[in-house]
Design goal:
The protein is an alpha/beta fold and about 350 residues long. It is built from 13 helices and 11 strands.
């Protein structure tokens, strides 16, 4: 903990104000989160399970266990503050926090040992692994979208989880980095997927589905038939429960890539990684209660307006859209709901005046 005397504080303040525009100019330091413990009725992992593919301590066993809740998130320096808050929120509201295995995906060009060290220092007890994602393989498939932040290859890592995570992981909850949970993730992870579906997510059938694809798409007779025989609804890809066994069996990664190849040849949609998901899965997903993705809190993509919650209960708040709560809080221009993100912020401010 860094403590400073007041004259120095004034100077530092001046200095930090000059640099807030570019947070990466300062290496961000994060506080240590408290340790979270399982409640007594949580399942424990049997070390001698003959079906287990792994041996060794709990940390190894949990990564293949169906009893664990597997969470996948991407990790990079630009969004790490959001990721830290998301992790803290997952642990804090979980009744079995020690049974959660985190699978972090980082770009192959990122410093994975730095990311690993950052996570470990804030969450010394966290069960996690960091995988690297070869973004060059997807870069060639990315067409520029109307929001450049969406063109980052890591944004597409969610389409490759079945290749990146260990083969023994059956089910995973994918989470974006700009969200916090206020409910037990085990409830979301337990969503029944049934025999036919490989993906569950909240879906929105009142959203104008037409607007996610270009007139080129809708005017093409064979393409527009994609949704002909199903009730296709919009869903947000920031919160998904995925059956990785079923995903691999259906080779959905290739199906998504096929649409991305087509997009390179003829522009069939405007936004980044979402439309290929809709093309492959819309109409075939298991709907999850809307409380699990109160999305759009980042605001309007063009003007950055504040958004309100959708009606109904809330289990997960998602700042999808252009604005991010940490940036607005730093700039002293928070939206009203950003104050709900702030309690999960682990950023260590450079001057701590309390003991
Ligand atoms: C990566 O991070 C580690 C640990 O924080 C650091 O020691 C190392 O110098 C970094 N490597 C590069 C290439 O920046
Ligand atoms: C949906 O969006 C399309 C294209 O953006 C528009 O032409 C159509 O009128 C919209 N439909 C409704 C019901 O708003």
């Amino acid at each position: 903990m860094l403590r400073v005397r007041l004259p120095t504080l004034a100077l530092l303040l001046l200095f930090s104000l000059t640099f807030t525009a570019n947070a990466s100019a300062f290496p961000q330091r994060f506080k240590e989160a408290p340790q979270f413990y399982n409640s007594p009725d949580c399942p424990s992992f049997d070390r001698h399970d003959p079906d287990s593919e792994s041996d060794g301590d709990d940390h190894t066993i949990i990564f293949c266990s169906d009893q664990a809740v597997h969470v996948a998130m991407t990790l990079d320096t630009a969004y790490i503050r959001g990721s830290m808050a998301a992790i803290l929120s997952v642990l804090q509201h979980s009744s079995c926090p020690q049974n959660i295995a985190f699978h972090f995906v980082a770009s192959a060009s990122a410093n994975a040992s730095f990311l690993r060290a950052t996570i470990s220092s804030s969450f010394p007890y966290l069960k996690f692994r960091v995988y690297t994602f070869d973004d060059s393989s997807v870069s060639r498939l990315i067409s520029t979208s109307i929001r450049s932040a969406l063109d980052c290859p890591l944004n597409y890592a969610r389409s490759y989880l079945a290749n990146i995570l260990p083969l023994c992981v059956r089910r995973v909850v994918y989470l974006d980095s700009d969200l916090v949970l206020v409910d037990d993730i085990a409830k979301l992870a337990a969503t029944p997927l049934g025999e036919k579906s490989v993906l569950a997510a909240p879906e929105y059938c009142n959203a104008n589905f037409t607007s996610y694809f270009t007139p080129t798409f809708w005017s093409n007779p064979s393409l527009s038939l994609t949704f002909a025989d199903k009730q296709a609804c919009y869903f947000n890809t920031g919160v998904m429960v995925i059956d990785l066994y079923g995903w691999r069996a259906g080779d959905y990664t290739s199906k998504i890539e096929d649409w991305m190849e087509l997009q390179k040849r003829m522009r069939i949609y405007e936004l980044g990684s979402l439309p290929p998901f809709l093309l492959v899965f819309a109409g075939n997903i298991v709907p999850v209660d809307h409380r699990w993705n109160q999305h759009g809190l980042g605001g309007d993509n063009f003007r950055g307006l504040c958004r309100n919650l959708h009606p109904g209960p809330v289990s997960l708040l998602h700042w999808s859209g252009k604005g991010k709560p940490w940036a607005r809080l730093d700039a002293n221009r928070p939206c009203p709901l950003d104050t709900l993100w702030a309690p999960y912020d682990l950023l260590q401010t450079p001057f701590v005046l309390d003991s």
